[in-house]
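step: validate -> pass
step: tokenize input -> pass
step: predict -> running
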Amino acid sequence: MGKTYGGLDDRLRAFIAAQPVYFVATAPERGGHVNVSPKGYADTFAVLDDTTVAYLDLTGSGVETIAHIRDNGRVTIMFCAFSGPPKILRLYGKGRVVTPSDPDFADLITRFGPHPGVRAVIVVECDRIADSCGFSVPLMEPAEDRNLLNEWAARKDAEQLRRYRMEKNLHSIDGLPALTAAEVEQLAQLR
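step: predict -> pass
step: emit ->
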């Protein structure tokens, strides 16, 4: 039933673009908590080439993905068809965290829609692209995007976001380093 692909062809790219939500999974190298994060907003995911994807990482209460990727690079992104034919697509690979101090940031950020509270761009070099049936995934129709994360970030000024990131985004729940204080200061300049 499942198939492995050498790259993201036009059919897979269309499938990715049609999904209203995707999931990002990471884990620390030595024990600790496995993390799975749902991601929304259609304009926060981009296919860069046949084996490279990126997504916009927005400020939130946790910073597990950044910490885990910096710890070991391992990441899996999963798309599920909640409407239409059943399908699950997983992109396995090695991720890297791109922050404003990285020379790639200015170009990468143009691939996404404008969102307040940008923290980083996560770039994933896929080493395995595989689908599976998705026969047990329920059929659901999205009502609309929840804009609460954007609204939350938009209500904060640069200093409030800086303080929030300093409090919540320097370490993972397992104490792994995530953002550095210098990166938090650079992010404050985006606003």
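step: describe -> The CA atoms of residues 97 and 122 lie 5 Å apart.
step: cleanup -> pass
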